[in-house]
Amino acid sequence: MVGICFLTGIVAYGGGRYCFGVFIKPMTEALGWTRTQISLGATINLVCYAAASPIVGRMLDTLGIRRTVLVGVNIVGFGLCALYFTQSLWMFYFLYGVAAALGVNMVGRIPQATIVANWFVKRRGLMMGITALSIGVGTTVMAPTANAVLQSLGWQSAFLFLGALFFVFIFLPVAFLVKGKGTPEDRGFGPDGAPPAEMDPDGGSAPGENRPTLDGWTARDALKTAALWGIFIAMGLSYMADYIVLFHGVPCFQDRGLPPAAATSILAFATLVSCFGRIGFGWLADRIDMRICMGLMFGIQIAACPFVMIGGADATMLYLFAGLWGIGYGALSTIMPAVSSQYFGRLQFGTIYGFVTMATVIGGAVGSTLGGWIYDVMGNYDAAWYACIVMWAAAGITVFTVVKRPDHKPVEPGGLGGKR
Fold first, then answer.
1. Fold (topology level) of 219-401
2. Tens of pLDDT along 236-287?
3. How far apart are CA 232 and CA 403, in angstroms?
4. Domain spanning 2-184 has what CATH number?
5. Where in the chain is CATH 1.20.1250.20?
6. What count of other Cβ atoms lies within 10 Å of the Cβ of residue 18?
7. Using the 8-state DSSP alphabet, how is residue 29 labeled?
8. Whole-prediction pTM value?
């Protein structure tokens, strides 16, 4: 199941989202659209992805992983293939902005995290990290692959190629290897391969603060807790700051006099280093209090900021910034589902994590816009770095004051939810 998750992450995010940039220039030249018009498609994609997240999570909890993912593959696969025929903006906005966003959501990180939450307890954090690693790998592999196809066969054929990947590398493995709803119980055993009779009804065998709840919370009950709203706020703030870096880091470095290739390589280095954050914090999440993990994650990113604030055009200082920030940024994609599953269990994890995802995507959308606004008003990005520090500090304060594991008697498997 981890292998399926890893393959899915590579194709879904590498092929369905993060290689979008390679299509901008050839599509503007071929169709006569402006870059603003094409970029609006990416904005629509982000908004639709956020709006669909709770719905996709609910589908995973009710219909199961197998049905949800197979439907999602058809939506995004046929949507990308249909872009071969696009000649109008409205068609592009619908196919890429709406269909691709919904389809990627249905096969992407929320199903990944749901599978891990269902199949693992003792090593859940580490498995979250390993599956999150696929997003970085996909970004590294798929963009140059799509560009190679585009240069050889054209942008339309490149979209066909990406659509076909979804059917070959996601549809077929899920259709033939995932049974029932995709839970370990569908194969006759519990998480970690334990017989169902050996499962701890209170949620796993690990003692202490980090003992995960297997069947604890309904989404309705979870939404009534301060802890979940604290997670929304903390993760949303972190993504707000992270998207300032992602969207405006390269132009900031270029404004300081770095060549485009050098500026891009710094951000690429951060993406590479983020892999260590995904795995390392996954390992750590299985061993220490989750709030300490989150505090360290935000603290590392705050510690990175002085290097970019005083570094000017010094490549060494900027690479130090990228290395530290990349570790914290990579940790986020592991910690988000890990804390959600640890605090609220498996029962309706998909729905709960869908709401968490929606909060973070909204934060990212605000951050990318805020960074541009700061530049337009101030004429530089100096204030943006101070804003990032404030956001990560506020996220850390929220974690230690609000995000406390709630007391709740777990709902029995098959239960209707609610406190008893």
1. Growth Hormone; Chain: A; (1.20.1250)
2. 999 999 988 888 888 888 889 888 778 878 888 888 888 899 889 989 988 8
3. 10
4. 1.20.1250.20
5. 2-184, 219-401
6. 19
7. H
8. 0.78
